[in-house]
Amino acid sequence: MPGTQHRRWQRINAGDAPRHTPVPGQPSGEEDSDEEDPEDPAPFYSSSDPSRTPPECWICRDALSDEPLVRPCRCRGSMAGVHASCVEAWVHCHRQGANPEAPHCPVCKSRYGGSELRPGPQALAVQLSRGFAKHLARTAMEAARFVFLGTLLVQYHTASTGGLQDKLPGPIEVEEDPAGACTPRPKSLAALAPLALAIFLLHKLMVLSVSLPPQRPPPASRLARHFFTTDLWCTARHVAELLAAVVLLGARCFYGELPVAYFVPVALGALAPFAQLLLWYPVKACLWEVLLFLVFVACAPVLAAVEVGRLLWRHRQRFANLRDGPPHLALALVAVLLCLLFQSRRPVTVLFGLHTCFLAAGVLERLVMRRYAWQSGNAWWCALLVGIEAANLALGRWWLTLLLLLAALRSLQRAAALQRPQDLFQGPLWWCTLLVAAEAASLILHELRGPPVQTPWTGVLAVSWLTLLGSLSCLVNWRRCIRRYRGWQHQHATFVLCAPEHRGRPRASSSSFDEI
């Protein structure tokens, strides 16, 4: 019966604790939780006695189901009968909160008899692969949006400098490449770049115009509701793309590579959402928020340095122990600084070589000798994250930088979905801040002093160093990984109830959670 199944799920998913509902004519109280009376002749409903109320399951409250009731615990009365499938579903739902307790009755506290089917490494691999594929698809969509915006900006810049100015009339333009060959290019393609960019930015303006400020009611117009969104992350993404277009085109205009006539329409269009915010909010409040933001940006390096110094002083004793994570975290930070301060990659290559030798000895000791005590902790994983950025700066691969930036974007999106404030060094915020700051500094230094000077062994040592650092982090924190794996098994285990038969009642089939 679909209605009955819907009521079962509605009550089970709500996580309600079973409540006692007394049967008419039966006294209420603690008698329903007493142990089973072996002399009780009729613990369940009997069709020969129509005066008694039909029993119902105390989870789904369904007395019309064809599934028989069983008694898996010591409860009596209205709390005695329950569907085996409801117990299994109730146990499964309560385990989603990582409850380590064994399955038991919430009233009489007696344990349920049954068996558990725990998933193995293959199920974990399938779940991780599905989650990775899901995040990879979303990251690919974000990358496609940025690539599309970058392509539009490049084509727009090309059209402004050579596609629409001082051109001879005619449907075809001829360009001569360095080899001397002539390549025809349709003149209409030069006009498509400004049109496509205008449509792309106009969509951003429409979304921001009907969605800002946040928590505003939906617009009355049916056309405007197509652009309305309540997702703060989606709104922030549109703002970021609009600001990226304005900043990049403004930089080209500042250096004289883009005519002013091509930049002014984009700048004026970007001011429309901010002008709308000024109309919604008082001017003093907006100016105060802008002032606070500028002060925070100016003081952010000092605040970060103070926070880092406080953490270093708090864990100063751990930095002297090379079998702990903080020294390796400090070396990874030093590697990032060496990549930024020196144009040559020779200093960071020497650091990679020396640290690689120690990491190789540590991996060998953990696998073979196991004589020394290594301190596990989250500092090893922090060192690995910083090491990824250090290796990225040393290698200088643009595709790896793009992947890291998109991963940071996905991490910020997941952190924003939690809707709770986080400190700078809590969660993924610190790594995203380090990644963006390091990449921005690397880009500025690349423009000022040119590309970095690579050495023959930089790539090999960077990859070897990062691989050994990850291997040693896993070996040191192996027990933590096993505990996490056991907790995941307990949370995703399938409990099958094995309830005894009661006075001629048919035994309930031990169905799993997915069969309800």
List keywords for this structure.
mainly alpha, disordered N terminus, flat, two-stranded antiparallel ribbon, 516 residues, 15 helices, disordered C terminus, two-stranded antiparallel sheet
3D architecture notes:
This protein is mainly alpha-helical and 516 residues long. It has 15 helices and 4 strands. The protein has helices at 2-13, 84-94, 121-163, 187-211, 222-225, 232-254, 260-280, 283-314, 325-341, 346-369, 378-395, 398-417, 429-449, 458-476, 478-491; strands at residues 114-117, 172-176, 182-186, 494-497. The strands form 2 sheets. A two-stranded antiparallel sheet has the order 1-4. The chain starts with a helix and ends in a 19-residue tail after the last strand.
What's the quick description here?
The chain has 516 residues and is mainly alpha-helical.
Helix content: 55-70%
Structural domains: how many: 3
Structural class: mainly alpha
Q: What does the main sheet amount to?
A: 2 strands, antiparallel
Q: What gap, in angstroms, lies between the N and C termini?
A: 11 Å
Spans of at least 5 consecutive residues whose pLDDT stays below 50 are: 1-7, 14-48, 163-186, 501-516
Secondary-structure element order, N to C: HHEHEEHHHHHHHHHHHHE
Can you list the strand order of the major beta sheet?
Answer: 1-4
Beta-strand fraction estimate:
under 5%
